[in-house]
């Protein structure tokens, strides 16, 4: 199986001198193409930091990160930004969107990068994505005129505009009620079924149980790596129980 992301003995520290602290203490992790992964762990265990370094958002202090065969320590700023733009999509707890643009323009803007030439193509793609996630009728709305779940759907459309190989989600369902959260997970499952790898940081066992692999972190290391069969709509209770049992074991 081809690896889309490799983290090889990653060390990440913050602070200087006596204040210096390792937040990731030599983490080795591999994500396969098309894999659906969740990262769980207590607050402060390094989940977001791991996601930031694997996505090249942040550099490392030791070890290396390889994305689709490219060692990020060997690429310059321009190539790093190209890799992030063309191979990765990002979904956050609260999508950061511009208040003076409608939903459609917010989805299109980041992929345009000032290039108006392909505006028609981008608009067509955004409309197809919006239709797919059930927000086709909201394209002219302001971002303040939609629900949290609808805004998150728009955030997912934005992340999919460049057909990424991997989507990173930092608590993408954290601001939603459990029904909306499961609907967002339905969308992630569909995207994953089409071959996009997804890595989600979550505190929610119901969310993690929808993935096929849950990495548990504690104190900057991965302490457990739980594998589940791909979710096919059945045995949700059994899956949640497996995740919950591991959480109890680890003390989350
Ligand atoms: N830019 C930074 N400067 C200094 N310390 C940082 C920085 N970013 C994160 N940390 C510290 O690194 C540790 C891990 O943070 P991180 O956000 O990765 O944890 P997390 O597991 O995602 O937590 P949570 O579940 O609360 O979001 C924390 O102790 C945090 O305070």
List the helices and strands and how they pair.
Elements: E1 3-14, E2 21-32, E3 36-40, H1 47-54, E4 62-67, E5 70-71, H2 77-87, E6 88-92, H3 103-112, H4 119-132, H5 148-160, E7 166-170, H6 178-193, E8 197-201, H7 205-208, E9 213-218, E10 221-227, H8 236-250
Parallel strand pairs: 3-8, 3-9, 6-7, 7-8
Antiparallel strand pairs: 1-2, 1-4, 4-5, 9-10
Helix pairs in contact: 3-4, 3-5
Bound molecules: adenosine-5'-triphosphate.
GO cellular component, one term: membrane protein complex
Organism: Paenibacillus azoreducens
GO molecular function: ATP binding; ATP hydrolysis activity; transmembrane transporter activity
Q: Would you write up a description of this structure?
A:
The protein is α/β, with parallel strands linked by helices and 252 residues long. It has a single domain, classed as 3-Layer(aba) Sandwich (Rossmann fold). Helices cover 36% and strands 26% of the residues. The strands form two sheets. A six-stranded mixed sheet has the order 6-7-8-3-9-10, sandwiched between helices. Strands 2-1-4-5 form a four-stranded antiparallel sheet, with helices on one face. Strand 9 and strand 10 form a beta hairpin. The site of adenosine-5'-triphosphate (ATP) has 10 residues, from helix 1. Belongs to the ABC transporter superfamily.
